Amino acid sequence: MNRKLVYLKTIYKLGFLKVLSVLYYRIFTHSLLTKIYFPQKVNKELSQVFLPSTKIKSISENQKIGIIECADSILEGNVYYYSHHKQYVGEKPNWFLNPFNGKSFVNQKGHWSKLTDFDSNLGDIKNIWELSRFNWLGTLSQAYAITFDEKYLQTMNLWVSDWFEKNPQNTGPNWKCGQEASIRAINILLAQEMIGSNIFSQNIIELLMVHIDRITPTTFYAKAQNNNHGISEGCALLLIGYFLWKNKKGKKYYSVYQKGLKLVEDQVQELILDDGTFSQYSIVYHRMILDLLSVIELLRQEWNLDSFSESFYEKVNLAIEWYSSMIDPISGDAPNMGANDGTYLFNYDQKEYRDFRPTLLLASALYNKPIPEKLVTSHNLIEMFKTPTIHVEKKAPNSKIFSQGGYLKLIRKDGMALLRAPKYLFRPSHSDALHIDIWQDGINWIRDAGSFSYALNSHELDAFSGTQGHSTIQFDNRNQMPRLSRFLFGDWLTPSHLEFSKSDNRMSVAYTSAKNDYHSRSVNKIEKGWEIQDEISGEFKIAVLRWILNLSDWTIKGHVISNGKISLNISSNHDVSLKLENGVESLYYMSKVPVPILEIECSTGCSINTNVSFSA
Questions:
Q1: pTM of the prediction?
Q2: Mean pLDDT over residues 282-294, rounded?
Q3: Which of 39, 276, 379, 416 sits at a 20 to 30 Å CA gap from 596?
Q4: Terminal C-alpha separation, the chain
C-alpha cells in the first residue's frame, strides 16, 4: 500500500493530464493504430540532397582552420560521439552500430513503435541515435561553405543519401524518438542555410517532409514529459514548417509552422521558471535548450520573421542568466549536477564538451543579453551567420539564490560553493538533496558523480543518479527519495528550512524525508575556504556523509584529509569513522573514471563539521 500511495502522490505532482497523455501514448504505440498513422514506406532514392553554392563564406583564419581540421577528420571516417569519443565509422557509417560494445541493432526493419530503448544485448539506444543526429553534417557544410571544395559536398550527399536508404520511413530505431528526428531535421536545415544556395533540391524537401510527418502527430507526448522534448520538437516544427511553406509546399506546412511557434512559446513559459531554472535541473539540458532557442532566433532574424512574444524573450534572458551563473569563469566548466546525457548541439567545430561558454556567447549575441567579460569565447555559428557583436559587462561573479529551482550559490575570490535545495516543481531525475559543489581556481574539488549512461541496472543507476552519486548524506544505504523508474523518483522532498544571506556569506537548507530522516546543511564562507555543518537525526542505523573528491593524491591523518592544496578537517559531537574509498565519476556520457570518495560514517544523530581550507 505504501508503494501505491507513493505512486499516487507522484502522479498528482506530475499532473493527471500529463500522466494520462503518457499513458495514452504508450497504449497507442502498442496498438495497430500506430502503423496506420506512421506507415512504413520505402524511401525515394536521394542522389543529391545538397546543391552547389555560388557564394563563398568568409570567417576568421582560426575558425577556418578548426572547421577544416574537423571536416577532414570526418572524411577520414572519424566521428565524435557525445562531443568526446572519437570513433572510426569508415567511408559510410553503419547507422545501427553501438560503437561502445561493437553490437548492431538487430531488428532494423521493425516498425519504430515495436522497438525497445534499452535492450540488454545492444545496450544504450542513445549510442545508435547519436550518429543519426547529423552533427557531422553541420561540420561538413561549414567546410564546404568556406572552401567550395567538392569533397565535403560529396560526402554530405553520400552519407545523407545512404542514411535515407538504410532508414526507410518509420522503420528502425532511428525513427523511434520524435526529438531525435527533430534534432536531425534542424541539422539538415542548418546545413542548407550555411551552404547558402538559393536553389533547393527536391530531395531536401522530401527529406524534411518525411521528418515532419514523424514529429507532428506525437508532440502531445513530448509536451507531457515536461522536458527538452517539447522544446526540441517545437523548434523543428517551427523551422521546417516555415521552410517548406516558404518554398510553396502548401498551407499544411504553414499550420505546422504555427503549431511549432505555439509549442515553443508555451513550453518556454511553462518549463523555464521565473528564476531562470529549466525543468530538468541539469546544466547539460539547460545548454541544450539554449542552443535550440538560439538557433530559432538566429533563423528568425535571417528570414525576417516576426519577433517572438515579449514574455518569451524575458524567460530566455532569465535562462541565460541562470546558465551564466553556473559557469566557472576560469575553466569554462560547470557543476556536473543533474542528468548529463552527452548532448552538445551544433558543436560543429568540436569544442571541448565541458566548456559551457560557447553556448552562452551565442545566446548572448542573439538575445542581446550582456555576459561577464571572462566568459567570452567563440561559437562557430556566430561567424557563419555574421551575428551582431556580443555585449560584455565588467560585472564580477556574485552570490545568488535561485529560489524556485533550488540553487544557492556563495562566491569567494576565484571560487564558489553551490548548494542544491530539494525544490522540485518538476520531476527530479537525481536524488541529490543538499549536494554541494566546491570550486576554487578553476578546479572542482568537491563534486557530483554525473550520469554515465541511461542503460544501467538499478544498482548502477544509484551509483550515479542516486544519493550515493552526490556529495551529501545517505541514510541506511537508500536513496533520499524512492526510485520509481529509470528517470523518476517518488516522495519528492521539500525544504523544511531554507536561508540565504548574501551579506553574511551564509546559506542553509534542511529537509525531513518520508522515512523521517532529517538532514540540515549550513555553509559559511571563512577566511581560507568554507565551513560546512551537517546535522542529522532519525531512526536510521547508518548514515554516511560522502565527499566526492577531485582525482588527486589524498592522505588521511586523524580527521584531516589533504592533498597539499586543499584540506578537509572533520569534527563531530559523536564518534565518526573516516575512510577513503574508490569511486567513479562521469564527466562525459559513456565515460567513467575513478575518483576518491571520503566517507564519514556515524550510527546516531549528530553534527558533523567539515572545514574546507585552501592553501593559497
A1: 0.96
A2: 98
A3: 416
A4: 55
